[in-house]
Specification:
Layout lengths: L3 E2 L10 H8 L10 H19 L6 E7 L7 E3 L5 E10 L5 E3 L5 E3 L8 E4 L10 E8 L10 H16 L10 H7 L8
Antiparallel strand pairs: 1-2, 2-8, 3-7, 4-5, 4-8, 6-7
Length: 187
């Protein structure tokens, strides 16, 4: 089961204006560096997300299940998990029949152990699949992004801006120090 992002555009947790201010770029340059800055912020966000196993831009994700878990809990790699938006059964023809609210709900710890709790009253998936759409990520309807991770994004983007074209210029050690306390562990 791999969650697939189905939402529209990604809203970056660090805006272009914030990044320009962090770099102390003059506004009278006419935005000549804006495309580069936007790409660096997106790249830095993706790097911090990979390092922490947390989603820093809110989104909606679709999950397909072919069987309900025996223990009634489906762990998800989507932290923080904000809400279950839709649940339904998909038959062989692809027709989706919505399930009653509450049969599938977020687990008790949506940040450190995100997952779905499946009610024992959920209908059998015999010859069907379950479609579940969830909202996940910091910002939007979710919790605010941790300031340490926002600073890590700014530092990584600034590092990329200052060292563009350089080879072998790895990320500054301060980024790892900011990210380490918020890294989600896996077994």
């Amino acid at each position: 089961m791999t969650p697939i992002r189905v939402a529209g555009a990604t809203v970056e947790p660090v805006s272009l204006g914030e990044m320009r201010a962090h770099l102390r770029l003059d506004s009278d340059e006419g935005g000549a560096e804006d495309a580069l800055l936007a790409a660096l912020v997106a790249s830095a966000r993706a790097s911090v997300e990979a390092a922490t196993r947390r989603i820093l831009a809110p989104g909606r994700y679709r999950i397909m299940l072919t069987a309900w878990p025996a223990a009634g809990f489906v762990p998800l790699p989507l932290s923080p998990l904000v809400a279950v938006e839709r649940t339904g059964l998909v038959d062989a023809e692809g027709t989706v029949t919505d399930l009653a609210p509450g049969l599938v709900r977020p687990g008790p710890d949506p940040v450190e152990a995100p997952g779905l709790v499946v009610s024992p009253e959920a209908p059998s998936l015999h010859a069907r699949a379950a479609l579940v759409e969830v909202s996940a990520g910091y910002g939007g309807d979710g919790p605010p992004a941790p300031p340490m991770l926002l600073q890590a994004i700014r530092l990584l983007a600034a590092h990329g801006f200052e060292h563009r074209g350089d080879t072998g210029a790895g990320p500054p050690p301060s980024v790892a120090a900011l990210v380490a306390p918020l890294r989600r562990l896996s077994l």
